[in-house]
Write a structure and sequence with these properties.
Number of domains of chain A: 1
CATH superfamily of chain A: Beta-grasp domain
Structural class of chain B: alpha+beta
Radius of gyration of chain A: 11 Å
CATH architecture of chain A: Roll
Helix content of chain A: 10-25%
Oligomer: heterodimer
Radius of gyration of chain B: 16 Å
Order of helices and strands of chain B: EHEEEHEEEHEE
Number of helices of chain A: 2
Strand content of chain B: 35-45%
Helix content of chain B: 25-40%
Strand order of the largest sheet of chain A: 2-1-7-4-5
Largest interface: A-B, 17 and 29 residues
Chain lengths: 80, 149
């Protein structure tokens, strides 16, 4: 089983994709998704605790995700 | 007079500053403050030729609106109009415009300041600098610059 995860900017460059399928079984915690991502090709460029949003809202690493959630790993923001 | 968040949007086209000022202005308003963020030509000593902005659009607009709503709570009576542009910008282009109008100057100035400071830490937008030498690089405000600051 896998979950689609959205990537942006430098993280999209690191993985060479704007969406990746991450091999985890939902429901699971955000930190499980991050751990799975970090061992994928390009994942070494991801920090241990990146910013994460679920359904377009900031969440903690301990937050749970279920199938159908919109999961996004967010690089350091630099607007303005 | 309508107050609060009149507009908080991510846009792709050049920002029309005077149109935003006109939108926030009102005959019962005595102060209109405008913050304009622009693309500058030098960063950390490197010559910049342009800037590319990317946003997680659905979330960025929602977060921008949430920040503006907080400013409305802190500064009751404020009229806020905000646009952040994404895409490829050239030197001098406005990347973000925040217009805060109020009966009095202090809340007008403070509301604009509140929005830009929160925007910089909470809204999922990224920028990649393009340099005159052809190189380009995503900006990470959390990174420690070489040699310290």
């Amino acid at each position: 089983m896998s979950l689609p995860v959205l990537l942006f900017a430098s993280y999209a460059d690191a993985f060479g994709a704007r969406t990746v399928q991450v091999p985890v079984t939902a429901p699971c915690a955000v930190l499980d998704i991050v751990a799975a991502l970090r061992v994928m090709p390009g994942g070494d460029r991801l920090p241990a605790e990146p910013l994460v949003a679920v359904n377009r809202t900031w969440v903690e690493a301990s937050a749970l995700v279920v199938v159908g959630d919109e999961i996004a790993i967010i690089p350091p923001v630099a607007g303005g | 007079m309508e107050t609060g968040v009149l507009r908080a949007a991510i846009v792709h086209a050049p920002i029309d500053v005077s149109a935003l000022v006109a939108r926030a202005s009102h005959e019962r308003v005595g102060a209109v403050s405008v913050f304009i963020g622009t693309v500058r030509d030098l960063n950390d000593g490197r010559e910049v030729s342009g800037m590319e902005y990317e946003a997680y659009e659905g979330m960025a607009e929602r977060e921008l609106h949430a920040i503006a709503t907080e400013a409305d709570v802190r500064f009751p009576g404020v009229r806020l109009v905000i646009e952040h542009r994404v895409g490829h910008l050239t030197l001098g282009d406005a990347s973000v415009v925040i217009v805060a109008a109020h009966m009095h100057r202090a809340p007008a100035l403070d509301a604009a300041r509140y929005v830009i400071e929160a925007l910089k830490v909470r809204v999922p937008i990224w920028k990649r600098e393009h340099y005159v030498d052809g190189d380009r690089q995503w900006i990470d405000p959390t990174a420690t610059p070489v040699g310290g600051r």
